[in-house]
Amino acid sequence: MNNSILLRSAFLFLLGFIFSVHLATAQDQQERKVIQLSGIILNADSTDAVAGVNVYVPKKGRGTSSGRFGYFSMPVLEGDSVVFSFIGLKRQTFKVPETVENDRISLILTMEVDEIALAEIEVMPYPTEEEFKQAVIAMNVVDPMSISRANMSPEMLLRWAESMPASGGENFRYFQQGQVLQNQDLYGPRPLRLLDPFAWSQFIRSIKRGDLKKRD
């Protein structure tokens, strides 16, 4: 009988304690005024806006991030600690005043670069210096001038010229020739070059000059 009374008393005490804590928390939330915190986040070295900065109240589950132009806006309570964090920048904390006359707070926050100094590291692909020296001596170094001479040879330049696509001027000239032929086709058949005396005269002159021999 005494044990049941003790258990009931302990249960009622625990229930009353939980209710009082919940009531105190609710009263604290009601007494603290909601403030709309907004502002712009800039880089300390310039006036460039910083986008994607995490803005949050720890352990409260409230947060946001700065937009494209560094602007942010979120509701907070009086006395909250707002944290601003971004990779590569120093974390900052803003403490909301306990009593705020207005229901809005505007900030212009500048964040500095978080520089981390690392010790000098020497990277060697060989375990010892002696092996490195032997590998350097055994290297087969090709003279860069011989490579450039081979690339500038007439045979190589001719091969590159043959494989190169037509330039803009050549494409335009071919286009103009096609337009002329289309206009000629509208008014009759194309002229036969074998019956053109001017073409025959040009052909005879080219033979006398030896143009065909030069091409061979």
Automatic annotation (TrEMBL):
Keywords in alphabetical order: Signal
Tell me which InterPro entries the record gives. CarboxyPept-like_regulatory (IPR008969)
Which Pfam family name is an example for this entry? CarbopepD_reg_2
Position of the signal peptide:
1-26
Species? Algoriphagus iocasae
The protein depicted here goes by the name CarboxypepD_reg-like domain-containing protein
